Structures are given as C-alpha cells and as structure tokens.
Amino acid sequence: MTDDKSRRDAAEHLALALTQSGMQRMAARVLAAFLFTDEPSLTAGDVAKQLDASAGSLSGAIKLLDALGMVERVPVPSSRSEHFRMRAEPWADLYSKQNTVIDLILQSTDRGIAAVDDGPARQRLEHMRDFYTFMLSEIPALLERFEARRAK
Amino acid sequence: MTDDKSRRDAAEHLALALTQSGMQRMAARVLAAFLFTDEPSLTAGDVAKQLDASAGSLSGAIKLLDALGMVERVPVPSSRSEHFRMRAEPWADLYSKQNTVIDLILQSTDRGIAAVDDGPARQRLEHMRDFYTFMLSEIPALLERFEARRAK
DNA sequence: GCGAAGTTTCGGAATTTTCTGAAGACTATC
DNA sequence: GATAGTCTTCAGAAAATTCCGAAACTTCGC
Fold first, then answer.
1. Mean pLDDT of B6-18
2. Fewest 10 Å CB contacts: which of A38, A115, B73, B130?
3. CATH of domain A5-86
4. pLDDT tens-place string over residues B122-132
C-alpha cells in the first residue's frame, strides 16, 4: 500500500509537534510512521526507506521507542527481519514515564529541604515538594479514569 | 546572608534534575538560585556573581523564567537595578504551560485524522486524540484540587 | 545634558546532541 | 556450516544548542 502525500505530510507534521514536546527528532518521525500506517507491521528497513534515513538511525530510534513501550516486536516466523508495530494503548504508559523525571526532581527537592534551615527558601522548597508529590499521587487515578471511560 | 556549601550543592543538584526534565541548563541554575535564597529579592548581577556566569546568560535565562511565570520583577524604588524573586505559586502555572504543547500535538493529530480514510491508522490516531483531549480537560480540575487541599 | 551603573542584543566559539556510513554480529535457510 | 539478508555498534561528521564577551542602549543621579 502506498502512502499518499497528504498522509505523509500529516505524519511529518505530527513528528514535528512531538519533537517540540521533547522527543528526539528521528524517534518522532519513526513513531509517526508507525502511527500512520495501515500495515499490520513494519520492519526497520521499511521505515528506513520510507523516511530516507540510515539503518543506524532506525536502530537507535526503534530501540528508544521500544524502551518507552511505544512499539513492540511482532513475531513473524517466516521472515528474516524483525517486525514492529505500535502497542495498542501506549499513551497512558508514555505519560506515566514522566513519573521517573518527577521522582528525580522530588529527590533533589528533599535534599534541598534537608540542607536549609527554616526560612523563605525552606517554605518554597516544601511547597514545591508538596506540589510534585500531589501530582505523582494523582496521575495514576487520572489514567485509570481515562481507561474506564474508554471501556464504556 | 551567605549560602553555605551544602545549600549550593543541593541547588546545583536540583538544577541538574530540572535540566533533565527539559529545562535549559542556565535557566535551571538561575531558578535554583531563586529557590534557595532567603533574600527577599535578587538582581541579575547577584545571580551572575553567585553562579559565575556572564551578564548575557543571565539576561536570557531570566527572560525565559519571566516568560514562564517562574520569577517576577520586584519594584525597588531606590535601586538602579531590576530586582527579581520567585512567584509565590508558580508550579501549577508551569504545569499548565504544557497544555500549549499538548494543543500542538492535538492539532497535528486532527490533521492526520482528516488525511486518512478509516482503517487501523485512523483508529490509532483517534485513540491518541481521545487521550490527549482527556488529559487537557482534566488537568485544570487537578490543579484546582491541589489548590483546595493546600488552602486548608 | 553628562557620567555611571545596569541591562539587553548580537556574533562567534565551544559543547552537546544527532545522523550517517562502514564494519562486525546475528539468524534463518539451504 | 556456508551464505545471504538484516540488525547493531561505533567512530566521525554534521547540525543545533548554549554560553560568553563586547558593544549598544537605557535609566538614574548629579
């Protein structure tokens, strides 16, 4: 099946938006390729050809997307190459990956609180800790609510 | 008042964590300086000296933090230089800034949905749109709940 | 106005990130 | 176990980001 131009344009456009949200450029383009295909699976070679990128880039990008849980390997016995496709419900998982970053910030904040005596700085840091702790505790429930709504 | 070593270490540590979450390096360091000070306000020169950074860098970093709503100008009539301090409750605001990015992703997703006929790709894109639309709608309520809890 | 202190802007340098191309490793088939 | 196709790794190159320093601009006090 051949992608028409407006489809590819839209894919590149979305890749750009994902890039601006912090994702690596090539990883974003590869993800868009998986998002926009009607094929049941793609190989690294397929995507490389489609995006006119090197095999090396694809290897790195797919490795990242796999680690993020955005794509998964598809077993295809009679093929020599690895086949990949997007995971079914990757967005909630992707979002909860941010928790790792928030955890890091929280640890540093705690360290800061331990390092300063009571005063304006201490108050500020405690407020910061309260906020991120709250977010960290609420996000799982938020994602569950989305799943629940979706199930209906 | 002079910052002791453990305080500065903690500040640099937190700056590093913020950097890893996507913030510019110097902006993160400047933000940490404002977080950890007990002074009512700091000038660009104060921070430059403390961080051993150039006036040019400070200008850019403070401009960014100001645009993000993390710091604000403090009027100090009898001083020639601009004084800054952290805003009181910047975290919720900072978080809702992400909505801008999500909006961008949503626009690109809609464009993609318009570009493809019904099929697996279309389904995938619609699911993606549903997720981000949900998050966008829920985040304000989440932030309000934090404020409410905090007020008590 | 004039001078001093502070801030912003801008070009260039340096660091970091990212991509490619080539070489080596792996796997399935024969 | 040889071979052909595919993937991964690595070093170097290209590109982007970030920082600094100098110069221009603004503001305040005199």
1. 92
2. B73
3. 1.10.10.10
4. 999 999 999 99
